[in-house]
Amino acid sequence: MRMRDLEKASGFGRETIRFYIREGLLPEPLRTSRNSAIYDEEHLTRLLAIRRLRDDRFLPLGVIRTLLDSPPDTGWDSPDVLPHVDRLLRARFDRKGDREDAHRILAEAGQEDELPGLVEKGVVTLAEDGSVSPRDARILRLLNDLARQGFSGRAGYHGQALGRYVEAMRWLADLQVREFVANTGTRMDDRQAADMAEKGLPLLLDLLGELFVREILARLGDRVEARNPPSGSAPPRNSARHSRRP
Known about the structure:
- The chain is built from eleven helices and four strands.
- It has helices at residues 3-10, 14-22, 41-55, 61-69, 85-93, 102-107, 115-120, 134-148, 157-184, 190-227, 239-243; strands spanning 30-33, 36-38, 100-101, 131-132.
């Protein structure tokens, strides 16, 4: 098919398609001349997969590329691999307790008006009766604590940063589940994998926390250094990395 046919079938514009080719998410087409190329079903299949992973699962292009390039026979996402590990881990990690009224929780810090935005961004899941799970109740109370420290929705914290945090968590979770199942599914049963995850997840959370604090301090340092660079010094270590935005 020609470019115009691929655009129509995929819903992507030609500049986006060319960008994906440059970034390695799509293979090079068959060139019939300098200004003409032929695209096949693989191009369309991958474009539709990119749209699903990007729009439905909010994955960044780097993760999408990894998923698309994975051998089809790895079977990491097969329900036959560790079929009970999610149930075992839910029993160990799900917070115990009753569901709570989300409005009442946020009202403790005068933030009840923030609830629609939190639901829209996927920060919490609201039942028809306005209640949330024990874990989501904990999330709301943490947001209350942040609001008391000045990180309020009125400052744009909820609507902007939290939406990005949710997307980042989905990306990290997808990456971690993929690696975990791929590396344990062929050598452990469900209970062994659940035991490993139960011990490892708290350590992973501590690791992510330390990495996060380190990067925040580094970015703040780069900001100051960029404003007041020492005489004759090199640019901040992250300036080159942040200069290119796909």
